[in-house]
Amino acid sequence: DTAVSQTPKYLVTQMGNDKSIKCEQNLGHDTMYWYKQDSKKFLKIMFSYNNKELIINETVPNRFSPKSPDKAHLNLHINSLELGDSAVYFCASSQVPSGIAEQYFGPGTRLTVT
Amino acid sequence: GENVEQHPSTLSVQEGDSAVIKCTYSDSASNYFPWYKQELGKRPQLIIDIRSNVGEKKDQRIAVTLNKTAKHFSLHITETQPEDSAVYFCAASKVGGGSYIPTFGRGTSLIVHP
């Protein structure tokens, strides 16, 4: 009965590789997000999807691309990984039209690029 | 866009003391101010939130106050316990129009000494 789930939990890979992180929510929420949390714990929003439309795209490199096959999933694809991409990536969801703005976060994916 | 400043970055208290974390925001249109708690290695979770039509909200040992004129809001934790030790994030955003894009503060690491 996990609300927001992510896979994998840990991801270790080499520079230059391409990887994906999957996210699924079973809350029926209409908006999903990706956050990057660096070593200093700063939570930076990367993307937000509402009804399968990208509604925000912060200044992230175009090596990062979100893919939403349906309202319950928002996957993150990263091409040509760099050392600076090492961080914890959190998926989240919320249901704004219902007035519930609380963000429900997934457990996070710790990405290490060597 | 919105800019959220959070202070202090680290707060160390003795068990039983009170702790106060302060945030300021820049966009007067922001109307929703949540606080998230992130324990070590875990996901951020909402602990309390306040909307701009309310000046104060309390839930057991935690309370949040909002001063819209000064554009600042604060988290108050009374009778702190070691399990309150975590990183706390404030956020500010405008809820409405079908979208919700939160801007987070940089976090406060609260350490409660037994």
Describe this structure in words.
The complex is a heterodimer of chains A (114) and B (114). The radius of gyration of chain A is 13 Å and the shape is globular. The mean pLDDT of chain A is 90. In chain A, strands 2, 4, 5, 6, 9, 10 and 11 form a seven-stranded mixed β-sheet that branches. A four-stranded antiparallel β-sheet of chain A has the order 1-3-8-7, with no helix packed on it. Chain A has strands at residues 4-7, 10-13, 19-25, 31-37, 43-50, 53-57, 64-70, 73-78, 87-95, 100-105, 109-113. Chain A has no helices and eleven strands. By secondary structure, chain A is mainly β. Chain B is mostly beta strands and 114 residues long. Chain B is 0% helix and 54% strand. The mean pLDDT of chain B is 93. In chain B, a hairpin with a 4-residue loop joins strand 7 and strand 8 (72-77). Chain B has strands at 4-7, 10-14, 19-25, 32-38, 45-51, 56-59, 62-67, 72-77, 86-92, 103-104, 108-113. In chain B, strands 2, 4, 5, 9, 10 and 11 form a six-stranded mixed β-sheet that branches. A five-stranded antiparallel β-sheet of chain B has the order 1-3-8-7-6, with no helix packed on it. The interface between A and B is medium-sized, with 23 and 24 residues.
